[in-house]
Amino acid sequence: VKALSVGHIVAGIWAAMNLGLALGIFAFGRGTFETWIHIFSAMLVAAFAGAVLLAKRGGRDRPQHRQPRRATAATLGAIGLTLGVSGFVYGYWLAVLGLYPIGLALFLLRGERLPPGAEPSPAALDATSPAPGPPRYGYTGSSPGPSAPVPPGHPARAAPDPGEHPRSKVATAAVVVAAARAAASLARRRRRP
Amino acid sequence: VTTTERKQDPPTRPAPEANSIVGWVTSTDHKRIALLTLATALVMMLIAGGFAMMIRAQLARPQQDLLDPGRYNEFFTMHGSIMIYLVMTPFAIGIGLYLVPLQIGAPNVAAPRVTMGAYWLYLTGGLAMLSGFFTNAGAANQGWYSSMPLATSSYDPGSGIELWIVGVSMAALGEMIMAGSVLWTVLLHRAPGMTMLRIPVFSWSTVVSNLMVIGAFPFLLVSTTIIAIGRVRPDLFTHNAWNVAYQNMFWFFGHPVVYVMFFPYVGAIAEALATFSGRRFFGYKAFVLSQLLFAALSMSVWGHHLLASGQASNYYYSLTSIMLVIPAGIEYFDMLGTILGGRLRFTSSMLFALAFIPQFLIGGLTGIMIGTPTLDYQMNGSYFIVAHWHYTLAAGSLFGLFAGVYFWFPKATGRMLREGLGKLHFVLWFVGTNVTFLPMFWLGLHGMPRRIQSYAPTDGFTLDNALASAGSGLLAIGGVVFIINVWASARRPRPAGPDPWGGHTLEWATSSPPPRFNFTARYPLPPVHSYAPLLDVREEAAKR
């Protein structure tokens, strides 16, 4: 028992309690549907617990110092998803429209994380003082753990070199084709009486 | 690090976290995402409160025509839907998003970008729900739990319900992602020394609450999908199996969500009680175990919502429902054990926390009453249910919410709220809540059904309804006092230090508001030896 972590024990107790309760429905003479709902729910939690255990085995159970710089892609993705689902109300053309922000989100996703080695991240410089008065969200402090000043020239000092991620030829070609089509469409509309 | 090094090496300000609108809406800071969520939830609460005021104005006297029946249906549906899907649940998850990384000593939440996307799903979902008012047929009007087959296109062809389906699905998905992100952070990104049994009480309540979100919220998505299918193929619900399946699916979500809207506020109350009693929280391990037991049981009581339909086992669901008094009793014992013998400070936060204890007891005990089949047959569909529900969520969880707001507002903003205005808010709400919701028990016992737009003078409901409406006026005035308090704090700030209350947990070790990654060389993480690390530090200092 000593070798088990509290997390394992909690997950075990949770699973046992749920199984007992799910079987309780059977004992009281109800149908299988309700039992299966309960078991399926316990399986969802178990799947989450399994993912946590896998991450733990992969050595990811420590404070996370490497942080993303912005969340534009996530914002666009959420807007795209909402547009897509709104297609249910206003017609499926809206669902197609939702693909554009999702595409843009995928395009932006790569540049939002700092390159490996940028630790602590640019927002985590040490030895800086809090701003004098509120709002103080611009304050750039360090992450927990052993803090050390970031040396000059460290990759954390600057945004990643855009040359590190050259735009792929396919993406460039796609942008050129889309721009040409948009221009042609505009030109066609102008000719109309 | 010396001053010389500071001069040689000036700090850089990262552009993405600038104090601009773009900086906020694309932020990856868990505190900003949480503040956006909490602010959105408070705005939604104002809207839902406005609907409640309209409902109470309509019912203040018999046979009034302020709202026609159709509009009345829309208002009670949207009041309930907004309060559950867009206020109490996201606020409960959002307050965890703000505090849990601070309390466990993590620099950020595990998946900040995904969490920001989740906020957008929640916001756009809420806007979709509200946009129903701008459609020709009006907003959704089928009740917050969408009774089937009432919500099919045969009975209600307007697009308001469809917008409600989209909105609820999006908001629920966003809330689920946020909860998963916070849970992942607790399980994997705790600071060194912060073991699972050193996690503060509030964070534990968030862990348990988020476990329920993972286990139950997918069933809401299944339920909204069933309603969506019902919109396209209304004949589906002529087969009763689909109605029963929907009821089971929905209430499998619908009951645990009550605890999702409750546990984090109990956690907030536990922190406030311990801090303002000057005592370590009593019975920590029993509290943790009771929360786990509470959560497990809460997943197996959904059938008591179907008792009156005859589609659920009376014995099983009434047994599990009544068993809920065991973990609830342990929590009450812990809360009372914390304040007994303490040196109490009656701040606004403490007053809200203390009032929670008897008020939620009324909500909880009447829940046990209606979890008993014989009583449920009598009470079901009456105002007794409305009274029970509001004693649980308004007199209970909302008081916990404000205990938390008054407690952590200085931490989040670096400014103190005015204690005088806070106490006025408390008095208005304490009186207003009980004057509003207590008469509803008598209304239910005298046979007033819920969701009726009017009643006759001869029904005998006039006095109790007038009282309830007068009480809701006090609640509205209390709400205005709170807004004035926040406004006064913004206009003429009174700075809060890092620890204005003498808190016990790690968030009070850092600056107010906390820096980007929560702890710095200037505000380092203290050593963690228990669930009250700052109290440990003070006790060690006192020994010396």
Describe the protein in words.
Chain A is mostly helical. In chain A, 55% of the residues lie in helices and 0% in strands. The radius of gyration of chain A is 26 Å and the shape is flat. Mean pLDDT of chain A is 70; it is low at 118-148 and 160-165. Chain B starts with a helix and ends with a helix. Chain B has helices at residues 3-8, 21-25, 30-59, 69-103, 112-130, 160-188, 201-232, 240-254, 256-260, 263-277, 284-298, 314-323, 325-339, 348-370, 373-379, 383-413, 419-445, 462-491, 533-543. At the A-B interface, helix 1, helix 2 and helix 3 of A face helix 5, helix 6, helix 7, helix 8 and helix 11 of B.
Layout of helices and strands, plus pairs?
The complex is a heterodimer of chains A (193) and B (544).
Chain A: H1 6-27, H2 32-57, H3 72-90, H4 92-97, H5 99-109, H6 169-191
Helix pairs in contact in A: 1-2, 3-5
Chain B: H1 3-8, H2 21-25, H3 30-59, H4 69-103, H5 112-130, H6 160-188, H7 201-232, H8 240-254, H9 256-260, H10 263-277, H11 284-298, H12 314-323, H13 325-339, H14 348-370, H15 373-379, H16 383-413, H17 419-445, H18 462-491, H19 533-543
